[in-house]
């Protein structure tokens, strides 16, 4: 681990000053400290933001939910409002990491977490994300766990978060604060596909701070849930996952929010699947037909072809779990 | 993965001479350097209100200078300790290398095995991923602080009753995690215990008995 200076911000203004001067924010630190130890991350200054007042979960005036950036994953998962309004979020959180890590890691940090691509973590390997222009060892390497959607010739790494998949499905927005004031970015625009600049992962300006993630009010009743498929039953990243939320009224699907994880360079919103569902009546046949579109546009690699079929089945199963079926 | 024991060994009683200030010493010894940066960081904390320039403090170059350090006051098993740490020091290394509390184990040093689990402010966390420098004012409980005198914590006793370990390397982490699991109320069924204890790996495969030990403690059975 490279040496770094450390400072603790006691209010947001201090944090932003330090961020503007090139300080790196640290919240839960579960990703950052790990990667610093691997010398993948080499911040010269850490700005501890854990004392900032960003730890509230509030119902918004419009009837959505605003989760402060420093709310711990375990706190969000256990929150009564989250559990009642958005089971897909509490489930995604509880299927992530371990209880210890969830006690440390924050919501803001979770969506900032970096890929688990083994080549990214190995400083001796070529990686355009870590070292722009050095190449991508995963492209023709051991790429079983890598992405099939949103990839480029420069990067095929997945975004590892589960709750970000739920955020993408529900069309959340990210509240940001910078030296120039506050702004809100749709979640779909916050995480960036790699393209030719895989080192750029978020639409953050230098020194900008995440203050909250907001979930929009959705028509009720809303059924939702998260399904995660992985190599072991617990404490493992997703091979595939599906976040599904359905608003069904008078036997007809009026709203459908679907996204997939473990398969994309960013959480992958499945608009083609959603389109198949809206206006139709729940049935096994519908789930199968809609899920056929889950891997539209997929570009599998040598070792992850299985993800195409696995993704379709994951989405189909989760549609059935959430929407019921015959 | 390298283990980096902290560089500094300054005890709190001798480390904070008022005589040092940033830049006043042209050829600092390690000790004066540490004192200097300790005073310097106090200035940083105080100076923040004034403006951003205080963050322009250059981090030390590892090749030529001692790495930056900070003073931290942390309560460990009920005893308040003030130590100066290299900023890179993990809580796990602080406990094991500086405080002689070797019950918490270093398995993966990457948050993947749970052997280092301790309670910070009552919450179970991975001490290997916790920077000690961030713990000013925190309360830490390790396996050494669980028993009350000669009386074992009920979960320690349950691990013995259920024969819930073989080699024992993961056990302190399992027990600390189990204490957290019980406190969080995730003991409704063996399945729930298994899921909420999944952050603790046991190479000997004592999982069934570990779950029983947690159940015994949570429900007295």
From TrEMBL, chain A:
It holds the Pfam family CO_deh_flav_C. Keywords: Oxidoreductase. Residues 1-220 form the FAD-binding PCMH-type domain. One of its GO terms (molecular function) is oxidoreductase activity. InterPro entries: CO_DH_flav_C (IPR005107), CO_DH_flav_C_dom_sf (IPR036683), Diverse_Substr_Oxidored (IPR051312), FAD-bd_PCMH (IPR016166), FAD-bd_PCMH-like_sf (IPR036318), FAD-bd_PCMH_sub1 (IPR016167), FAD-bd_PCMH_sub2 (IPR016169), Mopterin_DH_FAD-bd (IPR002346). SUPFAM superfamilies: CO dehydrogenase flavoprotein C-terminal domain-like (SSF55447), FAD-binding/transporter-associated domain-like (SSF56176). The lineage of its organism: Bacteria, Bacillati, Actinomycetota, Actinomycetes, Kitasatosporales. Transmembrane segments: none annotated. It comes from the Bacteria. It comes from Streptomyces viridochromogenes. This is FAD-binding molybdopterin dehydrogenase.
């Amino acid at each position: 681990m490279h040496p770094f200076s450390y400072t603790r911000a006691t209010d947001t203004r201090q944090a932003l000053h330090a961020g503007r001067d090139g300080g790196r924010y640290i919240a839960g630190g579960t990703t950052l400290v790990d990667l610093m130890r691997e010398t993948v991350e080499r911040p010269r200054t850490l700005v501890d933001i854990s004392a900032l007042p960003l730890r509230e979960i509030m119902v918004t005036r419009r009837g959505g939910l605003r989760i402060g950036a420093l709310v711990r994953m375990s706190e969000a998962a256990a929150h009564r409002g989250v559990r009642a309004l958005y089971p897909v979020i509490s489930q995604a959180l509880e299927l992530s990491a371990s209880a210890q890590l969830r006690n440390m890691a924050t919501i803001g940090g979770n969506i900032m977490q970096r890929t688990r691509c083994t080549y990214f973590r190995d400083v001796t390997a070529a990686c355009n994300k870590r070292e722009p222009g050095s190449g991508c060892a995963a492209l023709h390497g051991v790429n079983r766990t890598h992405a099939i959607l949103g990839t480029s010739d420069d990067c095929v790494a997945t975004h590892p978060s589960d709750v970000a998949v739920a955020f993408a499905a529900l069309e959340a927005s990210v509240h940001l604060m910078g030296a120039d004031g506050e702004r809100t970015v749709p979640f779909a625009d916050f995480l960036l596909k790699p393209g030719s600049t895989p080192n750029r992962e978020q639409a953050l300006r230098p020194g900008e701070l995440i203050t909250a993630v907001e979930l929009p009010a959705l028509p009720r009743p809303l059924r939702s849930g998260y399904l995660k498929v992985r190599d072991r039953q617990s404490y493992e990243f997703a091979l595939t996952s599906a976040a599904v939320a359905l608003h069904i009224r008078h036997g007809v699907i009026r709203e459908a929010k679907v996204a997939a994880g473990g398969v994309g360079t960013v959480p992958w919103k499945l608009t083609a699947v959603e389109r198949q569902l809206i206006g139709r009546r729940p049935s096994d046949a519908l789930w199968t037909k809609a899920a056929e579109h889950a891997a539209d546009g997929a570009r599998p690699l040598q070792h992850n072809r299985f993800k195409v079929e696995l993704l379709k089945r994951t989405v189909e199963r989760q549609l059935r779990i959430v929407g019921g079926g015959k | 993965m390298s283990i980096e024991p902290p560089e500094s060994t300054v005890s709190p009683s001798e480390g904070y001479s008022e005589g040092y200030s940033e830049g006043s010493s042209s050829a600092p010894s390690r000790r004066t350097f540490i004192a200097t940066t300790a005073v310097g960081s106090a200035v940083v904390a105080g100076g923040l209100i004034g403006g951003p320039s205080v963050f322009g403090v250059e981090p030390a170059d590892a090749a030529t200078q001692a790495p930056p350090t900070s003073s931290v006051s942390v309560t460990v098993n009920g005893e308040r300790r003030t130590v100066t740490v290299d900023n890179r020091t993990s809580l796990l290394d602080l406990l094991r290398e500086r405080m002689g509390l070797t019950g918490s184990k270093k398995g993966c040093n990457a948050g993947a095995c749970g052997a280092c689990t301790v309670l910070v402010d009552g919450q179970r966390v991975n001490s290997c991923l916790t920077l000690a420098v961030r713990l000013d004012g925190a309360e830490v409980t390790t396996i050494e602080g669980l028993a009350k005198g000669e009386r074992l914590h009920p979960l320690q006793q349950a691990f013995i009753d259920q024969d819930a370990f073989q080699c024992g390397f993961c056990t302190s982490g399992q027990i600390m995690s189990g204490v957290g699991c019980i406190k969080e109320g995730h003991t409704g069924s063996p399945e729930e215990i298994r899921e909420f204890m999944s952050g603790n790996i046991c190479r000997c495969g004592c999982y069934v008995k570990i779950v029983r030990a947690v159940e015994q403690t949570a429900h007295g059975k």
